Amino acid sequence: MRAKKRRSDIGREPHKDPRFLAAVDMVGRSGADQFMMWYCDEQKPIVWIAAALFEENWECAAGMNPLRAVFRLCETLVDGGTCVHCGKPTGFVPDLDPTVLGELICWYQWDPELKTFRRGCEGDGK
Ligand SMILES: [Zn+2]
Hints:
- The chain has helices at 18-29, 66-78, and strands at residues 34-40, 47-54, 57-63, 90-93, 106-111, 116-119.
- By secondary structure, it is an alpha+beta fold.
- The protein has one domain: Double Stranded RNA Binding Domain, CATH 3.30.160.
- Strands 1-2-3 form a 3-stranded antiparallel beta sheet. Strands 4-5-6 form a 3-stranded mixed beta sheet.
- A hairpin with a 6-residue loop joins strand 1 (34-40) and strand 2.
- The chain is globular and about 45 Å long.
- The N and C termini lie far apart (43 Å).
- Zinc ion (ZN) is lined by residues 83, 85-86, 88, 106, 119-121.
């Protein structure tokens, strides 16, 4: 087995990426009551952890930088959900990926103009 190719869309200053705040906002839109982020530097390499509280249950994801950690948390929260607007299963894509087509899945995708993650069915009159 070969390791998955590393995604390199995250720059050297991930906390300045506009997708960071938008992804945190996305966690809130998924119904989280609380959001936390911290890093663990007891061992190298330093690992970032993003966590969200839903009533009494925490969900978390980790990454080598804060942006990747919050993206993974969004994927965990959004993937496999159901869109309350169109009823399709939901998916989360951190990048603007033109190859992703939303026929079967309502993708939450980065909109660089509005600087937010928009759901796939938004704006098509439903
Ligand atoms: Zn939808």
